[in-house]
Amino acid sequence: MKNTIIFDNKIDFKQGETLTFFLNENFDFRTESRIFSTQILNKVQIYLKNLKFKKIKKKIISFDISEKNKVLFIVVKENLVSNNFEELGANFYSFIKTNKIDKVSLYADTIKSFKLYKKNTELILHFVHGFSLKSYSFNKYKTQNKNIFHFLLKILSSEKTWLNNNYFRYKAIETGVFQTRDLVSEPPNILYPKKYVEIIKKLSSLGLKIQIYNESKMKKLGMHALLGVGQGSINESFLATMEWRGNKKSKDKPLAFVGKGVCFDTGGISLKPARFMEEMKYDMAGSAVVVGLLKTLALRKAKVNAVGIVGLAENMPSGNAQKPGDIVKSYSGKTIEILNTDAEGRLVLSDALTFAEKKFKPKFIIDLATLTGAIIISLGTEYAGLFSNNDELSNKIFGVSEKIGEKVWRLPLNENYNKLIDSAVADVQNINYSGGAGSITAAQFLQRFIINKTPWVHLDIAGMAFSKKASNLSPMGATGFGVRLLNKLIEEHYE
Q: Is the pLDDT higher at 107 or at 407?
């Protein structure tokens, strides 16, 4: 049995299936007498009669109505919002997996009488969305003890047609999130820059225009900041662009999304400690978000023009590696003094940001990167750091982040911080060794490569891209943070 979610309007409970209902304080199960047998109704009603709703602390409660059939109640409080319903769906998945309930029939019409539903008819879709996001797993390299859980979830509703017609948007998002999680989860011996490029090229089948710049092309363009990061590796570096033209009639400037794609980060000559270095395969998470987002836009046929740009490199130590003290000339023409080769992500982004601005002349630029450990010290794993030169764009992102639960917090940019990255021998140095504010000075560095003052946001997702424990909507591992956030931004403000 494969993982399957289907919408149906035929109430046909089979042996071994688990009956599931939404339950709130005022719901009267007897109203469903046209649907369920007298035997089921009586057993359920007796159970509900003895249930004191206000004292229920569990989100899911269950009891057996026969030897082979269970009934589950998903407890719904009236103060919930759509984001809560996604978490409720995720909790439901965790419950059935833990209890090894692989066949579930959810009678969704029980929610229609709730006040919540009248305010938001898509609550069922939010529930299924959360369920699906939580069901992700990455075990392709396990040969034993894969702990695979397959399920069949039937959503039974009189609104089957409407649900089917509208779920495709959520499915597109899930596919984009899973693409991001897959990329971040792949080991570095499998996902190196050239292999990454091959994956990106396949997106052309969805209608995306893909263009790849190899090292030869980047040298001609003068992208020596990006090239410098990868020069110690035997694997070639690349820059890839993905264009989505979902609104060809529009003359509006495209929306630009830029991602850091350091497929593995040893620190280079400024070598990282060996312990936990394996986690540096996640240093390409920003680029993975951009790929997942563009895939989502293409799958749901978003009526917007957008472009994704990712810089792909490996930061390795070798006889040919970049050295502390080197000076490189960026695509912008500005020179950069390399003080620490482990501050490499900002070098990759500096060329990618200027390229995005010059080539595509976008409405705005949003970049994502696992850029600094300092952001984890500042915000932990609850918020991504947001830096920007534009209040309006920042406020829009903050607004949608609150709605979907991918939280961001804005930190300051100020001219006074620039003094910390001014170089005595070049236009700018790539790290600040004095004065603290590591995440801020990294963002200040990036801002210097937004040449034409295009509205710009930098999202430092170092604390959000990967989790060592399960989160609300994802298992332990890659989270896909950022895909849903930016898709929601586009949906609400640019379509």
A: 407
